[in-house]
Design goal:
The chain is mainly beta. Helix content is 12%, strand content 45%. The radius of gyration is 15 Å and the shape is globular.
Length: 161
Amino acid sequence: MASARLLAFFALAALITACGGPGDSAKVPTAQPAEATSAEIGEYVVHFSAQTTDQLPPDVARAYNIVRSKNRAMLNVSVIRKADRQSVPATVQVKTSNLTGQLKNVTMRKIEEPGDTVAIYYIGETSVANRETLLFDITVRPEGQTAASEVRFKREFYTDS
């Protein structure tokens, strides 16, 4: 049942993608086109998405302790090793702001789904207003690596029906 929830979670996240792109840790990365949902960082690929939490199926939200609301955004990040396409643990930190520079608090938490191979991903939530655009600056350091890499993407949220 947990892997079915995980598949539903990732399928939904893939449908509701955000924009993003790779960056160099010494420079401020630039946001990439809306269709981008991943960025290569050396031997790894970082996958990311953001959506309002009301779009999650109720059982998935309940299983992961997520409040469903059109005024809450959820960020989902995973780090995959290119060589074997396996999830890897990583330090994932996020700085989020809107276009006026207002900082938004997003605390990431690690989720591990057991199976033939363990799926590891990181989720965080924040409040969001209708037509608010958030910039997500994600710093990722895969376990065992000394250098961190940065990924930036932006996503506009629509909360009114």
